[in-house]
Amino acid sequence: LPVGATRTVGISPENSDSLFVGVEQIGFYISRDGGVSWQQVSSGLEPNGSHRDLVFDPSNPQIVYLADLFSGVYRSTDGGMSWEKINNGLSTRAVTSLSISSDGQHLYAGTNGEGVFRLDLNGTPPAGSVSTTSDHDEPSAEETNTPTDSGGEEISPKTDLSIEDSIDQTISSATFLFAGITIVVIGCGAAVLVLRKRKRKENEKI
Predict the structure, then answer these.
(1) Least packed by Cβ within 10 Å: which of 16, 42, 121, 123?
(2) Mean pLDDT over residues 170-183, rounded?
(3) Chain CA centroid to CA 79, Å
(4) Distance between CA atoms of 95 and 8, rounded to whole angstroms?
(5) Burial of 165 by CB count in 10 Å (0-12 exposed, 13-18 middle, 19+ buried)?
């Protein structure tokens, strides 16, 4: 194992002798004998990566997810020996942390500066999640989890308000503001007319 900054360490939940280590901008390494010897793994991984977090699928420990600060999220289905990117839907590749639900159906990716993204591995959002309230048609779970060329699903950002809703609210606010200004202008004009009439009557009396 080379000397370098270690950003993430993982221990297989099915075998405590299986260790996973990411060495900063050097490589990703696996030990099957509790750290006595190490093997570098590069299949599917970008060289000189900055691996920041690693989680195991609780329903199948052979499925592993890896976060990289430069190249996003990876998935391995063979215990870490080979990897594929699953970045479709991520607006940034600067992924710093990962978390997976206890049933292994929802993967969450924390990013540097752009919030948290959710990948629904079963194609449907978790029960009780906040849905968007919009008059526009929302894409189905199948549309928001489109397979990538490498077999990964789309990671969709978890938002409480759609872009269309934000635009509608902005337009509505501008409309109300314009209406309020119009009412004020009309009121001022009416007041000026009243004052002019009073002054004219006073002049007539004189």
Answers:
(1) 16
(2) 64
(3) 25
(4) 13
(5) middle
